[in-house]
Design a protein that fits this description.
heterodimer; B: 134 residues; mainly alpha
């Protein structure tokens, strides 16, 4: 994988060895998979509360919106974490 | 695109995902209309249309600022904040006035772009990554 000395990831890859799935791609998947996971969880919890209280669809709508907002917040947090890791790897 | 919204490429990428999502959704809407779910399709189109329009607006502003080497906080606010406000308003409208908007259509419209970012975005990122490694 690390054919060229100009590759900024060459040092890190040499340490870890070649990856079956590129770590950059896994990072993108990790960051973006937060959104559907949160939406399913938020919508489902809201739906359960709606069934419990008989308030459909109000609490489901609230659950989805809270999930959307939290997913954006956590996507940004995870992205910052990965950026910090990548910077440390390059050193 | 690594999620860094300070580059023109990242904004362009988000805009590209918006139009892919819109294109795929139009096919879904046509199927829904064909099956007789007109209000569902219209609600989906309205909420997704508002979302995609805001993403496009943010991408244009953010992209221009990135080209000039600055960060447009307004574009970031529209992308990460105002979009959710609009979705919230439309979802609440759908929940309280079901005669105007179909709730499930509004839900699909509200989550479509963010799901599109995961599915379409990953496919585009993988294609781009593969292209760069070649």
């Amino acid at each position: 994988m690390a054919e060229s000395t100009n590759d900024p990831h060459a040092g890190a890859e040499a340490k870890r060895g070649p990856d079956l799935i590129p770590p950059e791609f896994l990072r993108v998947i990790a960051v973006w998979s937060i959104v559907p996971a949160y939406l399913v969880a938020g919508g489902f919890v809201g739906y359960l509360f709606d069934r419990w209280f008989g308030t459909f669809p109000y609490l489901m709508a609230v659950g989805l919106l809270v999930a959307l907002a939290m997913s954006v917040r956590d996507m940004l947090r995870l992205r910052n974490e990965f950026e910090r890791e990548a910077t440390e790897d390059e050193r | 695109m690594n999620g860094d919204l300070t580059t023109t490429a990242s904004w362009h990428f988000l805009d590209e995902v918006a139009f892919w999502t819109l294109g795929i959704s139009v096919i879904g809407m046509i199927v829904a209309i064909g099956l007789g779910y007109l209000t569902f399709a219209v609600s989906w189109a309205l909420v997704l249309g508002a979302d995609v329009a805001l993403v496009h607006f943010a991408a244009r502003r953010g992209g221009r600022a990135a080209e000039a080497g600055t960060i447009d906080r307004g574009a970031l606010f529209v992308f990460a904040g105002a979009r959710f406000g609009v979705k919230a308003a439309l979802l609440v409208l759908a929940a309280f006035v079901p005669n105007v908007l179909n709730f499930w259509g509004a839900v699909v419209g509200a989550v479509a772009y963010d799901l599109g970012l995961t599915i379409v975005g990953s496919a585009l990122a993988l294609r781009r990554y593969a292209g760069n490694r070649r």
